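Morning. Coffee machine broken again, so started the prediction first thing and wrote up yesterday's gels while waiting. Chain of 563 residues, entered below exactly as on the submission form.
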Amino acid sequence: MTALPSRRRTLAALALCAFAYLYVFPYQPRINNPNENVRLYMTAALAEQGTYVIDDYRARWGWVNDCAVRDGHAYSVKAPATSFFGVPAYWLYLRWLALTDGTFDRTVALWLCRVSASIVPWLAFLWVFHRWLGRHTSSPLLRDAVFVSLALGSCLYGYGMLFMSHTLSAAAAFGAFMLLCDAKHAGRMRPLRAFTAGLLTAAITLLEYPGLLASVALSLYALVAVRPWLRLAPFALGALIPTGAMMHFQWRCFGSPFSPGHLYVEDDFFRGRHEEGFFGAVGVQPEALYGLLIHPGAGLLPLTPILAAALVGLVLSLRARRTRADGVVTVAVFVFTLLAIAVMNNWRGGWTIGPRYLVLVYPFLGWAALVGLDRLARGAPRATAAFALGATAVGLLLSGVPSAYYPHYPIPVDRPVTQVVSMFVAHDYAPYAFANVIGIHGGASMLPLAACGLAALAWVALASRERGVRAGAALGGAVIAAVLAAPLLVDPRPGHAEIDEARSFIARSWTPEGHDLAARLEVALAREASAEGYERLGAVYEAEGRHQEARAARARAAHLARR
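Came back before lunch.
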């Protein structure tokens, strides 16, 4: 028995996700995010000049990291697909400006690239993903819990809003898996589906270089899944398109179709890291495995705990003859990707939300978790539903909320919610949001998004057709969420200098500026100074780690008190 969703149910799922992804625009230009900017530079070069060379855009918009320099010209060192996908929206924006005599705005251009090249394709994947999950469980609640946990309660949410490749690489990889899995169980594959599966399989690497191992695993799976054998021809034809695009990019930029740009990285430090071992691979590091999987503030399992059930699902898949090949390829994608990152000297990936280099494996683990939960629910339906709902709530809190506010936390921040996000909420910091259009800023502008998160959680809880299961899930889920989240919200280093420094940097560089508590107090005190006001301002600065400003405010308060 399956829990195939109605089209109305899937539309509701997609509406919740679309609102969450489109309502906020977490953009912090002062951090000069190289992952987005170097891709935008290449998109602009392709749209405006038809070249991969980004020299003119570095001169126009400023230096950015993650560039490779060869023969005196700068190129993006990133896999090129995301930049390719941004070209149509960027080009149409230029044409619109030409027709209307408008002024180019780089922030608008980036937003358009985010929406067209990241958010819309990801939402299209989520439509298919929600319906496909329904085939693998008899419980609508478990289906929707896994869906919401991945779409809104994991770092897929944070990276899905950015002009980056992580979330789309996950969509390409699992999109190919879904097509191949369906073909294997049906015993036949249509030519168009085989072509699409090949296209997606090779596109993983075109999106992200580390995706090569997933491309290989899925290509091997195709040998098992694609029937009749002649349908491997359209599979190979589809794969040739991204492969040819990659080879052209590397040939024109780095002199060989088989040469990535990492050994031409401009930054001396990062070039040195890439030259260590094999392109930065230095051997499996235990601290990397811990950090990627179980670190309380950055690991895959604590931040999206519903994926813990994947272990049960994978064991079940491997034991059953019918699903053994599916389980093997899932394990292969997970293990190969994990080890490929764990051997890298830059396994953390800089300023992140969660284990960004593992984003590709999330849908695979989500499917396995659903298989495991479905089996557990046969013996303990209420307890399993309670775990699923509680784990979904924890994912929304620990991954979804930090993603919406600031999806790039400095490395010293090891408990984002406690150390930084609590400051955002208490001091009225908020990213750009659609409510800004009607003059609502600060914490009030985030209320519609909070309502969306609560609605998603309620939507999951109400999915079950059995009233007793719904009630048990709601009560038990609250308890489980508290038990899972409480230890992850304890700051292990309260008042630590590195955390204060990270908070102060974020506060000082925050965009949009002028709407947070400190900024409003500054404006009020400029109109009417008072000792009490400056004391309060000093306390706000202190909580934000801005100790220099706090001392100045308290000195001003003392001066006014003496008058």
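The chain has a mean pLDDT of 94. Going to sketch it on the whiteboard this afternoon.
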